[in-house]
Amino acid sequence: MQEVGGNGTVSWIGEGSLVAVADQHPEQGSKTAHGLDGPIIFAAPQPKSGKYADDFQPMKPIQMVDLLGQYEKIKPEVDAAIAEVVRSTAFINGPEVKAFEKELAEFLGVKHVVACANGTDALQIAMMALGLKPGDEVITASFTFVATVEVLALLGLVPVFADVLPGTFNLDPADVARKVTPRTKAIVPVHLFGQPADMDAITAVAREYNLFVVEDNAQAIGANHSGANGTRKAGAIGDIGTTSFFPSKNLGCFGDGGALFTNDDELAKKVRMVCNHGSDVRYYHETVGVNSRLDSMQAAILRIKLRHLNAYAKARNAAAAVYDNAFADIAELSTPARSSFANHVFHQYTLKVAGGSEKRDALKKHLEANGVPAMVYYPVPCHLQNAYKSARFAAGSLPVTEQLTHEVLSLPMSTELDEQQLNHITATVKNYFK
Asked: Which of 96, 175, 270, 296 could be disulfide-bonded to 162 (CB atoms 3.0-4.6 Å)?
């Protein structure tokens, strides 16, 4: 925000539209600012001349994720790559896909990456490649996007929900161990919001009970996990890792996309066959498969974005640090906890708001009224969704998960957040708690 003289601060959004001010400036034509504390928003034209004209600086509209701003910085590379795919006409399984798989494998430190159509497919293909059968139990989180659980139901597998830790929102390894039964075949830890789960503890449970581990890494690609076997990338620790390249992800394409990662040669072969109609040799089908492919145009875009992924994570962490500092003294807010064994890449910056959903929702409404979007990830946990309700996991069975759904609120998190936007977001939050 910009200082504009004796008694206030002001920024404006767009071409002569929304202006947020801390105090009244009569020159801007406010009719209602007298006696109000903190920022207000009202319609006013950007001044073209006069005392405050030079102090008004346009503030870009704030979005949860600024995909256009990100694209504009790499536009020449992206446009050239797309044009080259069109010229080549190698739209499916072309050289761009193979190059992207190789480069992502090198980035993650794994032997094999197999690209597919989306992150949901990646999870389903992982279960199919592992040979899981209807009735097998898979332990995972209820505090996650529904795709994690959806694929289990589609395959006739039984989702078994473990609670999460209140600080990191990731699976509680102790509760995972409590949920193991003779029918359990796999664990699916979700690296939620950009921070890896405790993979040492989870893989220890898996070893004890001879279980597969499938990492849902849709939100934490590029994050590091430091454990008993050194520092490795999230998604590269279990039997199979999966990810999504949905546009808003930290590594996102311009449509849908996904991938699976593994260090197991035989498993990689099975994954690739399942992706391709169960076929290794054209027109010969060894197993039941699906049709799930990443197209060459998306692969070309992802190759470019992969080169910037570490810089994107650095920008997200810089924005998170601004939020942390701004909210440190607000007793009603808990900023994201950081694990000692992992770094955070902030797919989301998620606060916990004390006072339950009424207080959280009121803050959300206040933010939106002041030009700041905010989201609740997730308002209803999977075990209480109509599609997945069961007597085994009734209301109250996952107390931490259920409490979080009444507390969490995610603020804008993007590689393109600038100082002016961050100042406006943090000031708007702080004003609510004055």
From this structure: 175
